[in-house]
Amino acid sequence: MELGPILRALRQNKTRFFLISLEVALTLAIIVNSINMIQDFKAKMERPTGIAESEILIVGSSLFAPEFREEGYRQNSRKADLALLRALPGVKSADSLDMVPLSGSGNSSGFKPLHSKMETLPCNIFTTGVDGIATLGVRLIQGRNFVDSDINDADSKNVIITKTYADLLFPDGDALGKQIQGREPENPYTIVGIIEQMHGSWPNWRHVNNVMLRPGEPGNFNWGHRYMVRVDASQISSLIPIIEKELLAANNGRNVQVQPLAEIKARTYQVNTAIRKMLAAVIVLLLFVTALGIVGITSFSVTERTHHIGTRRALGARRLDILRYFLTENWAITTIGLLVGLGITYGLNYALVQFLDGVKLDTRLVVMSVVGMWLIGQAATFLPAWKGARISPSTATRNV
After folding, report:
1. Do residues 177 and 210 make contact, with C-beta atoms less than 8 angstroms apart?
2. I want to staple 188 with a disulfide (CB 3.0 to 4.6 A). Which of 11, 69, 131, 179 is the partner?
C-alpha cells in the first residue's frame, strides 16, 4: 500500500495525530524507565549479601531491672546469655553485636591509609566478638579472625574489613597488616583480616559493601544487649519461642524479642517493594490509556471516513485493503511517537542516573519495549479497523 494517502491524511489532522504520537512517546519513556527501575530494585533485593541471612535470628534484650545499671552485672548477664544460646539444640553459633546488618539502622564513619592525603572513604561499622564471623556466615579470605585478646584489650585497634573496602583503601591489594585512620592520625586501626563480602545496614546505600568489624562486647543499659544466633534454617520458627522463654527464665529483668534476619531485611526493603508495585500499576494504567486512545482515534477515523471507505469498496477495494490501510496508518503514527519517545526515554534515564543513582538502560529492554508498543498499537487498532473494513458500499451511501 502506498503511504501517500496516509501521510496526506496525517497532515490534514495534525493535532489529533500529534496528540496520540505524543501519548505513545511519553508512554514509552515512562514504561521503559519504570521497568528498568523495577528490575534494578529486584536485582538489589536478590543480590548476595555475603551473610547467612536465612539462618540468623536477631535477639534483642531490652533491660529495665536496676541491677543492669551496674556494668559487671550486665556483662555477666551477657556472657550467661551467650552460653545459654550456644547450648541450645540446633544453634550453630551465637555472638553479640551492636547494630543489625540489612536493618536500615547502623553506624558509619570514614577512614583512609595512615598519614594519607586522600579523603576518608565511608564504611559501615559493626562491633562483635570472636564468634561474630562464624555467626554472620561471612567468609574470611585473608588474615585472621578476632581473638580473646582483641576483645579484652581496651586499647586494641585491630579490625576486619571487606575486600571491597580494602581494595578502595589500598588499590594495590596489600591492605592486610596496614594501618588506617579517621580524619586524624591518632589511634590508628590495624587491618588483621579481610572478608570476602558483607552488606551493611543500608541495602540501598551506594557504599553497602564497605564494612568494618571491630572487636568488643557491645551493650549498655539504655540500648540493652543484641545477639545474633545462627541456626539451621529449618528450625528458625521453632527456636524463636524457645529462645524467648529460656532467656526470660534466666533473667526476667528485661524484655526479649526474637526476629529472623530475613524478616528484618524484608521490612527494610518495604519501600522498594511498594515502589515496585506502584510502578507496575503505572505501567498497566499507561498501557491501558494509550491503547484506549488508539482505539478511540481509530474509531473516530473510521466513522469520519465512512463515505470514503464505501467509495473505495465500490471501486473494488477488499476488506483486507481497508484493514491494512488503518493498520499502516496506526503503524506510522506509533512509529513517529516511538522515535520521539526514544529521545525522551534516554533523556529521562540520564537524569535518573545522574541525580538518583539510577542504572543505565539495557538496549534489549528498549528494543523489546518498542516492539511491544508496536504490537499493542496494532492490536488496539484491529477491532475498529475491522469494523471499518466491513462497511459496505450501500451503507456508505446511506450515511452520506
Report:
1. no
2. 179
pLDDT of residue 383: 73
Q: State how far the Cα of 104 lies from the Cα of 24, in Å rounded to an integer.
A: 39
Closest CA to 137 of 205, 231, 17, 215: 231
CA-CA-CA-CA torsion for 5, 8, 12, 15, nearest 10 degrees? Answer: 100
- Relative to beta strand 211-215, strand 56-63 is unpaired
The C-alpha cell that represents 372 in the structure block: 511491544
φ/ψ of residue 224, rounded to 5: 75, -160
Q: What's the pLDDT at 294?
A: 78
CA–CA distance, 341 with 328 (Å, rounded to integer): 19
C-alpha cell belonging to residue 21: 504520537
Q: Give the pLDDT confidence of 199-216 residue by residue, as tens digits.
A: 999 988 889 999 999 998
Q: Tell how far CA 96 is from the center of its chain.
A: 29
DSSP for residue 204: T
Number of CB atoms found within 10 A of residue 109's CB: 13
Please enumerate in sequence order all residues whose Cβ is within 8 A of that of 209, keeping only pairs 6 or more positions apart, or say none.
Answer: 162, 164, 165, 197, 198, 199, 200
**What does the pLDDT read at residue 130?**
93
108-113 long-range contacts (CB < 8 A, ≥24 apart) are: 108/200, 109/182, 110/182, 110/183, 111/169, 111/180, 111/181, 111/182, 111/189, 111/212, 112/169, 112/180, 112/181, 113/169, 113/170, 113/178, 113/179, 113/180, 113/181
Under DSSP, the state recorded for 228 is: E
Task: Specify the pTM.
Answer: 0.77
List strand residue ranges (DSSP E) for the chain, in order: 56-63, 91-96, 107-113, 121-128, 140-143, 158-162, 179-181, 189-195, 211-215, 225-231, 254-260
Which pLDDT belongs to residue 112?
94
Q: Cα(69)–Cα(254) distance, rounded to whole angstroms?
A: 12
**Residue 77 contacts residue 224 (beta carbons within 8 Å):** no
pLDDT value of position 400: 47
CA distances from 100 to 3, 97, 376 (A): 65, 7, 47
Q: By the 8 A CB rule, do 131 and 94 touch?
A: yes
* Pairwise CA distance, residues 324 & 326, whole Å: 6
C-alpha cell recorded at residue 92 = 550453630
Mean pLDDT of 300-321: 61
Angle at the Cα of 7 from the Cα atoms of 4 and 9, rounded to 5 degrees = 110
